[in-house]
Specification:
Length: about 200
Amino acid sequence: MSMSKLNKTRVYEVYDEIINWFDDARTKNLMESEYLNLIVNAIPPKSSILDLGCGTGEPIAQFFIEKGFKVTGVDGSQKMIELCRKRFPDERWIVSDMRDINLQQQFDAILAWHSFFHLDHDSQRNMFKIFESHTKPGGVLAFTSGEEEGEVWSDNGGQQLYHASLSTKEYESLLKNSSFKVLVHKVCDPECGEATVWVAQKI
């Protein structure tokens, strides 16, 4: 068994190992644009974005930066954040596990895109307290999940990466109990790389 498969709780350490593969493999064509534009239209111009699990900053953070939004990116991978700082030096980049953040700030939008699903079930449940405390009233939360409850490992750049998902019913309950209403829930969107997408607004 590889070291990465043993490392279920700190997937970002695997990303440090595969950063070059990831940066090359990560599509930059913004197949997520439908959801990103939904966020843009739901929040004030030039407002604040918290990107949790921001990776290398491309293309998600880049999309918002180019539209004049102020981005704070968080990632547990030191190497990912170093690349973000090089590419977008005017933004705020933080090396941290998203489960540990307490930024004493609320944002107009939070994204946990293709990152939230690397957390185990209990960690995902606990993240909703962080989402709630870091989102302004009327702000938007967007994240991707699995299509059904479970845990899987997948090969990425020759390393095994952990993924987990709660059930649709539990996500709906967690969002409601954290003062969010669901705007969009799309399962295995073929226009977005088969991603299962959640977009919710804090009420």
